[in-house]
Amino acid sequence: MSTQIESRYAVGPHEVKGYNTQQLRDEFLVDKLMQDNTIYWLYTHYERFMVGSAVPTNTPLTLETVDNLKAANFLAGRELGVINVGGSGTVTADGQDFKLGYKDALYLGKDTNDVVFKSHDSQNPAKFYLNSAPAHHKYPNKLVTRDDANVLHLGALETSNERDINQMLINTVVQTCQLQMGLTELKPGSVWNTMPAHQHDRRNEVYFYFEVPEQQAVCHFMGEPTETRHLWVHNEQAVVSPPWSIHSGAGTQNYSFIWGMAGENLDYDDMDKYQPSELR
User: Fold this and answer.
1) Fewest C-beta atoms under 10 Å: which of 82, 192, 213, 239?
2) Is 162 annotated as a binding residue?
3) What distance lies between CA 170 and its chain's CA centroid?
4) Is 200 annotated as a binding residue?
5) Domain that holds residue 77
């Protein structure tokens, strides 16, 4: 079996106030992604959200069900979002091939039975970043290339946060039940990925950091707005953000990250913002 999975239960803000650095990393950092020849999953109890990766090198990888789902098929009651951050590859879903280049995305709906991940070049394998959430309705499978994204140009170099937000798997581009995904690219000279910081009381979010140069890092800020904590994150690592936590980060150099979220609604702007002067 080429699938690995671990599970983490939800914790609240009161417990986290007493966590040391290692406890924070154990609960919220996802540092086992992008393993060769492996599908890796972290099953969280925040909105039953799953974050994972598939890196097919020598042979294709098949999406297998896991015991956590108690279902005969992985997508029997779920939807899946895929964004490729490696070499070109193909995702075959119920016999239909979807070719994904760098930073292309794919939505797979509920009741898609057979899913296979394949790289076009084993020396430069595809790196499929995966997010999955429970789904109540089957929506059509759809490829969303980087050119199809709805792009928001935000921030400024003067405030170190000039960036492009590529909205890819959101309801203005593709129909989903609750899953939303996209990627943000920071311009050279900018390091803040989200400012003002915000939280979503009605959904969770996961940040996956990539294009972080070797020997560089991102300081990810989390916690309640007046009780913040931080995690140092490296390339191709992710952070799980509970509904009660802010999520924002600053890098030692510009980088990119993928955001994925699920919860009560599909309103991208449903967030509570906190200005820098309000943070503690």
Assistant:
1) 213
2) no
3) 13
4) yes
5) 3-278
Count the neighbouring beta carbons within 10 Å of the beta carbon of residue 214: 6
Question: What's the pLDDT tens digit per position in 88-100?
Answer: 999 999 999 999 9
* Measured CA distances, 114 to 61, 179, 207, 216 (Å): 11, 20, 27, 39
CATH number of the domain at 227, please.
2.60.120.10
Supply φ then ψ for residue 50, to 5 degrees.
Answer: -120, 135
Nearest to 129, CA basis, from 268, 262, 258, 263: 258
Nearest to 49 by CA among 179, 138, 184: 179
pLDDT digits (tens, 9 = 90+) for 149-170: 999 999 999 999 999 999 999 9
Six-digit token string for 251: 């890098």
Annotation-wise, does 6 bind a ligand?
Answer: no
136 is in an annotated binding site: no
C-alpha span between 30 and 141 (Å, rounded): 27
When divided into structural domains, the chain yields a total of: 1
